[in-house]
Amino acid sequence: MTKTITTPATLIAAPQSGRPKAVLFDHHDYASSVILRGNDVPWNNATAYAAFFAQAQGLLRPDAALLDLTRLYDHLTAGNTRLETTMAARSRTGYALRTLLADNDTNKAVLEFATVFAQTSRQPVVVRIPSPMEWLISTHRFGGADDVGDLSADDAENASMYVSDWLRSFATLPVAGLLLDNRTPDEGRRRVPVALEAYTPIANVTSNYRWTLGQLDDAQVQLQGDTPVGAYIPGRFWLDADVQLPPADFYFAEIPSSARPEDVLLRLDALG
């Protein structure tokens, strides 16, 4: 049965959760702590992961399901010496990323995982991946370059062509939106600022598939061509009842693993 795709714009206008403002949760760390209780995340079993994810969704009642391919790629590539060797075969800028995104074994695993996730989700699916610049930076070292100072916005635009080609494998999945994660990493390495508008190849693909394209920036969540602007719910919101929500049209929330379930339930009530 083919699912009817609900767009993020529709969700923002009329949140399915019944809250005044739509909320998208990254509950990975919190759910891993509360539900899995120290056991490994079942990345190698898409059905088991979907069940784990659905349990967290049921507790938190978000307006969409966040399919985080960033973490999945981290799992699939960790210790993969075959792939690392292939990515390091050339020093040309972007070669490592292009090789990663063209790897048949990895792509097969990602597509199988994403298919199970999307077809079993009860909420509209929003996919998160690194922005092309962030993905380029994270793979740049395989070409022997430790310094990202030579990377430019032009390199990011070239990288977006590799990403757009890779995205075509998801054409038949019931996806509502794509979020490019462009936030500054925790390690605080040098940034190369690139606006969402620079990623024309990706925008063309998402437009063709009727996906909403957005970007997670440090200050806000931006949706292409839409006036609604999203804000981040502060991590302290889940730990302190006195922390207020920032003004926004919708929210993106990451719940800390240290948050207590009883406090999270109280704060969920505060969201409406």
Topology:
Blueprint: H1 8-13, E1 22-26, H2 28-36, H3 46-60, E2 65-68, H4 69-77, H5 81-87, H6 95-102, H7 104-120, E3 125-130, H8 132-140, H9 153-167, E4 175-181, H10 200-209, E5 212-216, E6 221-223, E7 229-233, E8 250-254, H11 261-271
Parallel strand pairs: 1-8, 2-3, 3-4, 4-5, 7-8
Antiparallel strand pairs: 5-6, 6-7
Model description:
By secondary structure, the protein is an alpha/beta fold. The chain has eleven helices and eight strands. An eight-stranded mixed sheet has the order 1-8-7-6-5-4-3-2. The model has no long low-confidence stretch (mean pLDDT 91).
Summarize this entry quickly.
With 272 residues, the chain is of the alpha/beta class. It contains eleven helices and eight strands.
